[in-house]
Every structure is written in C-alpha cells, then in structure tokens.
Amino acid sequence: GTIYGLDANYYNSETIESGMGYWVRATEDGEITISSGVSAKQVSFVNRVEDANSITFSSERYTTELYFGVEIPAEEILSYSLPPMFPQMDFDVRFSGDMKVVPESGEIEVLNQSETLTIEYDIMIDAGDKMEWVLSSESGDKFVLEGTGEITVPSEQKFVLSRIAVIPETFTLHQNFPNPFNPITTLSYDLPKDSDVRLAIFDMLGNEVATLV
Q1: pLDDT tens column, 142-193
Q2: Separation in Å, CA 131 to CA 164, 168, 178
Q3: Is residue 89 classed exposed, middle or buried when 0-12, 13-18 and 19+ CB atoms within 10 A define those classes?
C-alpha cells in the first residue's frame, strides 16, 4: 500500500510500468530488484482503515480520501504515510505530517487549483457520549460530521478535524438515575459556560440535607 504514482496528484499504484517513476516508502536504504517471471514474496497487510471514518475531498477532476477514528499500531503507521507535497501538484489533501489517517484530530492541508471543494463524509465510529466530530475551515466555518453527508465549500488551504465535547445551549439539571435507588444514584447537569456550581439536596419539607458540590 505504499507504492505511489503521480498523475497531477498521487495515486496508489497496482502495477509498475516501464519508464514511469514511483514513490516507495522504505524504512532504510536498500535495493529493489525486479525480474520477469519470478514471483515476489508478499508481506500480509491488514487494512486498519477499512472500518474507519472517512472524509473525501474532491475538486473538479481529483479526489482524495482521508481516514480518522482508529488507532494504528506504531510499527504500522508508516504504511499510512504519503509522499511529500510540492507546489506544482494540481491537487492534494492530507493530514499534517504527510499522513492519511489520524486517531482523533488533526490539521488538514489542501492544495487545490479550483475555487470550490466538495467534502463527503461517512461516520462509522461515533465520537462518544456528549462528543462530536467537527470539521473547521480556515475562515471559521464549523461542520458537525454525523452519519453520511456532503458539503461544498470555497477552497481553503487548511481545515481542522477535531473530536470535541458538545457544549450545552442552556443550563439543565437532569433527572437522577437510577430512581428509585439503593444505595447509589447519579446526578448530571449541563453548563453552557464555565461557572461555579453548588449542588444541594433538600428533603420534602425544604430542609437542606447535604451539599454535594
């Protein structure tokens, strides 16, 4: 998965053609010998992004897919790296550090010659309780990524993908759970901004029994 060809933008090459140049990820200096009629030894490869969240960036002619929401073992991370970007390319999208996958959040670098970008997303892994996946543009627009969807935006040089806590819109004290209980229950509340909190328990006659927080 780390042999790339270049045709205005990078692509994963399934074949090596005579006279063409390719980018190959290696961890040390070495030599590659290609002989006709000889079977090459193949190393088994587990695709760690097969069930990951995906976000696809498209211009008028080119498309690049990135992944997030999964952990990649340290010894395999270079299998998800990309060749270096250079200004003469027509189109390129990647996470900073020349990666095509991040566990949770990362800056997305864009090289695009057209005026707009079409962004498609497919969220297979939920962000978690009271969390959400958010894509922020350099101009300040924010898009919550849920389920599947498509958005078209003016072309930007940078986006930021984040897994962030959902900020409540109003103060809310939720019903305790479980109720009735014996001997433990949980009390939850939402705050729309940082605030000092006093949480007290009263009996049916209005007498304060305890101050919890």
Answers
A1: 999 999 999 999 998 899 999 998 888 789 999 988 998 899 999 889 898 8
A2: 6, 11, 23
A3: middle
pTM over 0.90: no
Question: What are the residues facing 107 on neighbouring strands?
Answer: 160
- Residue 131 burial (10 A CB sphere; 0-12, 13-18, 19+): middle
The bridge status of strand 142-145 relative to strand 158-165 is unpaired
Do residues 154 and 115 touch, judged by C-beta distance below 8 A?
Answer: yes
**DSSP notation for 65-133:** EEEES----GGGGGGGB-PPP-TT-SEEEEETTTBSEESS-EEEEEEESSSEEEEEEE--S---TTEEE
